[in-house]
Amino acid sequence: MTALLEIVNLRRLFRIGRARTLHAIDDVSLRIGAGRSLGLVGESGSGKSTLARLVVRLDDPTAGRILYEGNDIGAVPAHAFGRRPARSQIQFVFQGADDTLNPALSTARNIAIGLGASGGGDVRPHVEQIAAEVELPRELLERRPHQLSGGQQARAGIARALIARPRLLVLDEPTAALDVSVQATVLKLIDRLRHTRGLTLLFVSHDLEVIRLMCDDVAVLYLGRIAETGPVADVLARPLHPYTRALVAAAPGRAKADGDLIGGEPASPIDPDPNVCLFANRCPLAMPRCMTERPRPRAIHNARIVACHRSDEGDGLSGSEAY
Amino acid sequence: MDSAASTRSSGQALGQRIVLAALAALIALAVAGPWITPYDPTETNPTAALLHPGAVHLFGTDALGRDMFSRTLAATRTDLLIASVSVVAALTVGSVLGAAAGWRGGWVDRIIGRLMDTIMAFPLFVLAVGIAAAMGNSVASVVVATVVVNLPFYARQVRAEVSRRRNAGYVEAARLAGFGPIAILAGQILPNLAPPLMVQSSLNMGWAILNAAGLSFIGLGIRPPTPEWGIIVSEGAAYIFSGEWWLFVFPGGMLMLAVLIFGFAGDVLRDRLDPRRD
Amino acid sequence: MNAALPLVSIRGLQIHFGGPQRAATIDRTDLDILRGDIVALVGESGSGKSLIAHTLAGILAPAARMRVERFDFGGVDLRQQDAPAWRAIRGREVGIVFQNPRAALDPLMRIGRQLGEVIAHHRLLRGRPLLDATIAALGEVRIPDPAARLRAYPAELSGGMCQRVMLAIALAANPALLVADEPTTGLDTTTQGAVLALIAGHARSRRMATLLITHDLALARAYADRIVVLHAGQIVEMAQAADLFDRPTHPYTRRLIKATPVEAASVSDLSGIGGRPPDLDGKVPACRFAGRCDRAGAICTTDRPPLASVAPGHQSACWNPA
Fold it and tell me: DSSP readout, A220-235?
């Protein structure tokens, strides 16, 4: 299957103060096949939101390539990307917040923003059509965003992203701010739209269960680095990286043994030691090699990729513990 | 949750309507002024000098026999015109500078900031006097002085509002859609700024009127015989102790009334224009 | 673990906001909490769950008008208690942990001092014994290297650490009841698990009643003995945690379970709940779920269903339970 999106050795560094550097994304490589849905899961500081913004070109990478249909869109600076034809093909659904929609404009005009500057002429029919597709009642189109419920605002945000008919949709915690009953409806909507429009999804979330339901594959990020990737059901049932295992164990609703919960605090992403596994300070399986050599992502089997020395040496999690 | 509109008492709503009606009346006076005055404001009549206010001359006459009522009324247009031109110019230039500073940040922000700080470092009226004196006695110098002195307020407000919204979700969505910075500033951010800017402008009008009147009072800017509140008050000031009170009370009172009306109107606008209400 | 007499007994709690025409935000609610019991109060936004937390902590906003028929705490009638009486109860008998721990801690005071103040107040310690007790308290909430952490300011600690400090403060006087209002919302998943395990562990070891307020049913199931489901200010179902999931009887509970991702095998298993809770300024049906319920009948709009027993230890407020 051809990859619609391929990320190659991507790095995003932020300068802090005069001499320090924050490694938000540190050598990440990923592929998403056309029509597939990849979940990006991680906690705060994992870099998942940074990665999402790089993919939609709201931000420029420090190094590495972002290949869309084989073309390096990362080479085009963010401020110049707006004029590219690929611009309309990659769209973004924001996390619901007060300022996701413009409070001074009507919902219809907010949705029409998605058509861009080239959306001249009569945009109204397009807006009404997409509103119907996201099940947003017509009479709400003339209202301002603050008059809509959280779920309706989420739909408007999705409509705005889809009105330009993108192929790749990146979503950053689209339902995190919603009540669970509303979240369910919006997730089903996203899933339905994905199938009717043949979308490829990059779904960022901290919630493993949402990723499980919405995605084919999952990539687990920790402090800007890939911990592991693979088909979502497989990764959740048989995690190969100790961090993934801890993440799965911490999710409520899953059976857990006492030793599964990890403590400690994440290492600092500022000027991290390049020769160290950043998870080592909290890892129950840490060994000397973890403090002297950074583990690289390596393909195992069944489309699984893991960055862990234990896995390399064959005495890591065997992946036979089922949940 | 209570809707905000319902917490406004009916007394408050009536007060707002009165203010807006007064504002409308003031503007109507400015527009119609010269045509509805009972006498020619500049026509002198030495035989009728210094008459008390009465049936024939509502506000009395001045030392040259000119009808005070007509002069005061006609001055409305002069003052409002000067003030509104100044405010609009200050708003425009200040907004552009503020938007550039707020959007670009970096050295653009720093330079514009220093410029605004420099202007604000002067006592505003002293600066206005300096500019008007340097440019000579004319309406233009009054306008320029008022514009320069008022620039920083708009620049600061717009800069703050723009830089606050620069990373808002809807702004990023517009960037994602391919809009350039000008389009975003004008189409996305400006509609959010319009209400606070309108409020600021209305409040500013009052100050601009005072500024124009003040400059004329000390002899800069407008020259007689053009009717203008500052000039009229300045001419009447000579008579404070001799008892011809109508020479400065009426024009001074109109001046004060105009400033008050614009001030209140600003409050009403602020109340009515919150984008989160309808 | 559970004494026969409840630690907290509330009958007919009503909380009103706004004008007299407005329906009550909390609508005549009864609640019992047994000693040593971990009770999860589950509700969505607007359900009023935080109001109940505030009532138990005696910190209800002045704008709220509260009426209650009975409010017993450990045998003491709290209905008429004034501020000084509440100050004695709060902190000593009731410990509180809130969402957003960083906001609850004084940003200008070192955490050692903040915690020390509370311990000194309740346990009347000073000097060296106080220092030792403070270090011990930090250790009990599993803060690594507690002696070094004493001098840290809240801004230097992560969200999870701040929450642990809050918990230590809440537990300082060994209260009989811990009220935790969304204690882990906003924290990372791994931290959430650790903090909740900590709370549950302390509840068990101290035989401390815990009211855990959350919007997350999965969390409630994982950590609570008993679950109380709140909808629009009305308790609709109460049961032992496992029982609630095995045999949910109230339509809202059933729909809520079906909306929770962890319970679904695939997206098609998920289903949301249409509509919204009733607008309190408009006409409010007697059973406030009636407008969104597919099992509603005429009586649901006019008569509020009482909480009735559907199985031992399991109650449901529905005219037409499943």
Answer: EEETTEEEEEEEHHHH
